[in-house]
Design a protein that fits this description.
Elements: H1 2-19, E1 22-30, E2 41-46, H2 51-67, E3 71-74, H3 75-78, H4 87-96, E4 101-116, E5 120-132, E6 135-147, E7 151-165, E8 170-182, H5 186-203
Parallel strand pairs: 2-3, 2-4
Antiparallel strand pairs: 1-8, 4-7, 5-6, 7-8
């Protein structure tokens, strides 16, 4: 029993530390004409030019939607970035494949801030006694070393998400999100953003979260 308790406790600590690596705050708004309207099938597309970041965003939002039992597809699979896609073609493709919600994500800011603590100055004094012809002589030497301060890197990203009602081609829901995470780990920030977006959709009544 004691061993199991230790394992569970360690797991909770690890989960807490991982969860605290990134944080997102989202502010959202539903259009009055679509207040409370629920959606079932989502395409998640991002206008981010960096393909690696694009995939992290789309895959993470899709993952959290699927965890709640919804059909979802990343935009890079439905609309390969090797081709040019105009709005008319995107709309017709979404309708033909039965999507009722189109989540469009963009980044308005992404940067890293570095915080460095003050250097640590360590002074060490040592005494030594030596014998000479005149007797013992005591002498002290002082050594000062400077240790560089610790460096902490934080990644900040601001997102804008529009959910387009496919049937009407209107923006049914919009949100802005501010995310921050440790180091240059955009994948962790993308996961935090995605989870918060899905929770915000649920809070505004557009999907249901499993209990």
């Amino acid at each position: 029993m004691i061993k199991n308790y230790k394992i569970i406790t360690l797991g909770l600590v690890v989960a807490f530390l991982l969860g605290s690596c990134a944080f997102t705050e989202t502010t959202s708004f539903s259009d009055p004409d679509f207040m409370g309207k629920q959606y079932k099938k989502f395409c998640v597309n991002s206008t981010i030019s960096d393909f690696d970041d694009k995939k992290h965003i789309e895959n993470n939002v899709v993952k959290y939607l699927r965890q709640q039992g919804y059909e979802a597809m990343p935009g890079y699979k439905l609309f390969p970035p090797t081709r040019d896609w105009d709005d008319k073609t995107i709309e017709s493709t979404l309708r033909e494949k039965g999507y009722d919600a189109y989540l469009l994500v963009s980044i308005s800011d992404k940067h890293v801030e570095v915080e460095k603590s003050a250097p640590e100055v360590v002074t060490e004094t040592k005494g030594k006694t030596t014998k000479t012809k005149r007797g013992e002589v005591y002498k002290e030497t002082t050594k000062t070393t400077v240790k560089d301060g610790d460096e902490e890197r934080k990644l900040f990203a601001n997102f804008k998400t529009d959910m387009i009602d496919v049937k009407s081609s209107r923006v049914a829901w919009t949100a802005t999100s501010k995310s921050e995470g440790m180091n240059d780990d955009f994948e962790t920030v993308a996961g935090s953003f995605a989870e918060d977006i899905v929770n915000s959709l649920a809070k505004d009544g557009h999907i249901k979260i499993k209990k």
